Amino acid sequence: MYRYVVITDRETSGGFALGGVEVETVSDADGAREALSRCLSDKSVGLVALNDRFLGGLGVSMTRKIERSALPVVVPFPDPKSRGEGRTEEFLTALLSRAIGYRIRLRT
């Protein structure tokens, strides 16, 4: 069975930990990149939920690794502090477009 890992900041990590989810707490995009790199190389991780605040700082190389990786699936979630300013929708639309071969429009 695969593990589920959440990569997020200190402020939002407590809620996930209380729910019994494994949490990697990071403070910036560099920390998120390192945690994500560990998750991508760990065959026991099947799903990574990533705070979308860190998406922009992952860099082209890490974004390509995510795109090429079948497992773990990396799913961004909106940062509660962002008030809709994150890149979650853009990232998911691009990910789905590559996976299914055509562009879709997400309703909000």
Spell out the blueprint of helices and strands.
Blueprint: E1 3-8, H1 10-18, E2 22-25, H2 29-41, E3 45-51, H3 59-68, E4 73-77, H4 88-100
Parallel strand pairs: 1-2, 1-3, 3-4
Helix pairs in contact: 2-3
Salient structural properties:
single chain; 108 residues; alpha/beta; four-stranded parallel beta sheet; 20% strand
Relative strand content: 15-25%
Side-by-side strand order of the widest sheet: 2-1-3-4
Low-confidence stretches: none
Count of discrete alpha- or pi-helical segments spanning 4 or more residues: 4
The major beta sheet can be summarized as: 4 strands, parallel
Mean pLDDT over all positions: 85
| Structure summary, number of beta strands | 4
Rg from alpha-carbon coordinates: 13 Å
From the N-terminal CA to the C-terminal CA, the straight-line distance is 33 Å
- C-alpha geometry: globular
Category by helix and strand content = alpha/beta
Which percent bin holds the helix content?
A: 40-55%
Order of helices and strands: EHEHEHEH
